[in-house]
Specification:
549 residues, three-stranded antiparallel β-sheet, single chain, 60% helix
């Protein structure tokens, strides 16, 4: 079963549960009592620090408890391997790696080979995974970062709403993001992107009442995290709040202005200075990002729809040519009117499926009232800018919207507050719906875990990742000699399923992965005279591994 079909089936189950709860709400007894949380829940929520701490700890405990069932993910997609290269580089105390003399044999996606050898992505994601690598494994960094995100989200919501509503929104986020999503079951490091946006919004929720130095510093840290993870989308999210902050600071006396502006200026100067040093070491230019270098070297399709196709670069490997030609096809199709609307619908479907689903669509029924809330005006403007910016981008995955995760949960919580007052013939339907939301979310987690335990086709294989490559890597590492694997593919190969990736110090690896370049392999074999050489074609099932020497 395809992932699309499996996702649709899960959403149908969720929709049935939502409809059942709606019917249950309509059948509620008539009551004029106002909405109130259970007393134990309200008492817990009043301990704000404890609530935020429990949010993060629950992510750690729940996901670790599920390791026997879900396992530890293996990398699978281009982006994941690229982030892991950055993590290994940072974990070894380097900002980048020297270009390898045999770099043409190691060319792969989302990695620059020269002027230095490094991931094409900004540094924040790699730094988080590097912290995990130093602790035990890169996944530890991903796990801890997702826990930190949920704690920070609780803190953010507490700056905007009463404590019980903040805790309710946090519980929904933990269940939606912190257990079964690809944000924690992979190496995309989207949690660090969302963390930056949450810091910024949490600080603004407090700054809008009082311009205070500590919150101003937190605001600046959020800006820096966004700038060093997803700078384009991060800028779109930040812009309305930057303008509002500047307007607020202009009204301050000179003395108060200094207390608020000084931490922001110092942190931004230090942070952007460090970012410039990083890019200077990697690309040779503090203003030239690694992403720009990679796209210039390999890509033809631009990032934005109004840009033009680049000239065809030199491709030394057919699989890379196939991938970047596919990008061109996507770009050209997207530029037509029909293609634009079709692709826009696809983006909304993918984003809705990941962030909302049928369950979290319920609070959005209150959107006509939410748009009239003055305190969420900047939130809605920021979200609108983010959505507009993503619509004119050629490529899309759900984590492209990660800077706006905090925006979404602000809207959802406000929607639940409005929904809680909804009555049908004096029946407190809204109250029942709101209180049932976390129960349905938890129930869907249980349903999915049962399906996983049953190896149902409704749930893709767990653990996540390219398990064949990971198993082969371990098998080769157990052999006595150092190994060299030459990888080739069938003409029908899907370029998304790449096997040629290495870490920071290629020559010291027990197993080196390289392209099979036919007669040109001779120079690589001469460079590695002591390695056992294998030829691999992962498209043949079972995977075909042939010993050459």
């Amino acid at each position: 079963m395809s992932r699309w079909a499996a996702t649709s089936a899960i959403q149908i189950i969720e929709t049935i549960l939502v409809l059942a709860v709606c019917l249950w709400g309509i059948r509620a007894s008539r009551s004029r009592a106002r909405f109130a949380f259970p007393s134990w829940f309200a008492a817990l929520a009043r301990h704000k620090s404890l609530g935020a701490l429990l949010a993060g700890v629950s992510v750690l405990l729940l996901r670790l408890a599920l390791v026997p069932l879900l396992g530890v993910p293996a990398p699978e997609w281009h982006d994941e391997f690229s982030y892991l290269l950055a993590a290994d580089t940072f974990a070894h105390g380097r900002l980048t790696n020297p270009a390898h003399p045999m770099w043409k044999h190691f060319e792969t996606f989302h990695v620059i080979q020269y002027p230095t050898y490094m991931s094409m992505y900004p540094p924040a994601q790699g730094l988080v995974l590097a912290a995990g690598e130093r602790l035990s494994s890169p996944w530890a960094g991903q796990l801890l970062m997702t826990a930190a995100l949920c704690s920070a989200l609780c803190w953010m919501l507490q700056g905007w709403f009463p404590p019980a509503w903040a805790l309710l929104g946090t519980i929904l986020a933990v269940l939606r993001i912190g257990i079964l999503s690809y944000w924690i079951n992979g190496y995309w490091s989207a949690s660090v992107v969302a963390f930056g946006g949450v810091l910024l919004l949490g600080a603004w929720g407090r700054l809008r009442h009082r311009l205070q130095a500590g919150n101003a510093a937190t605001f600046a840290v959020g800006l820096l995290v966004l700038a060093n993870s997803r700078p384009y989308e991060g800028l779109l999210v930040s812009l309305p709040f930057l303008v509002a902050l500047a307007r607020g600071m202009l009204r301050l006396s000179q003395q108060k202005l200094g207390r608020v502006a000084l931490p922001i200026v110092i942190l931004l100067l230090v942070g952007f200075g460090a970012t410039g040093c990083f890019y200077s070491r990697v690309t040779g230019n503090p203003l030239r990002m690694t992403y720009q270098v990679n796209r210039t070297q390999y890509a033809m399709a631009p990032y934005f729809l109004w840009q033009h196709l680049r000239a065809v670069p030199l491709y030394r490997h057919p699989v890379m040519r196939d991938f970047y030609e596919w990008e061109v096809e996507q770009f050209r199709a997207y530029r037509s009117i029909a293609g634009f609307w079709r692709r826009t619908a696809d983006k909304f479907w993918v984003a809705w499926s990941f962030y909302l689903g049928p369950l979290l669509t319920l609070p959005l029924l209150a959107l006509p009232w939410i748009v009239r809330d003055r305190k969420l005006r900047l939130v809605l403007i920021s979200g609108g800018l983010l959505l507009a910016g993503v619509l004119v981008s050629t490529f899309f995955l759900p984590h492209y919207l990660a800077p706006g995760t905090g925006l979404l949960y602000l809207v959802l919580v406000q929607g639940m507050r409005h929904l809680s007052h909804w009555r049908w013939n004096e029946r407190p339907v809204g109250r029942r719906l709101v209180l049932a939301l976390p129960l349905i979310a938890a129930g869907m987690i249980c349903v999915r875990l049962v399906l996983i335990a049953m190896h149902s086709p409704l749930e893709p294989r767990w653990p996540r990742g390219n398990l064949e490559r990971a198993a082969l890597q371990k098998q080769l590492e157990r052999l006595p000699r150092q190994q060299l694997v030459l990888v080739s593919y069938l003409p029908s190969h899907n370029p998304d399923h790449e096997w040629v990736y290495n870490l920071a110090d290629i020559d010291s690896q027990k197993v080196v992965w390289a392209r099979d370049m036919g007669p040109d392999n001779a120079e690589l074999l001469h460079y590695y005279p002591g390695r056992q050489v294998w030829r691999l074609n992962p498209d043949r099932k079972p995977v075909e591994l042939q010993r050459l020497q």
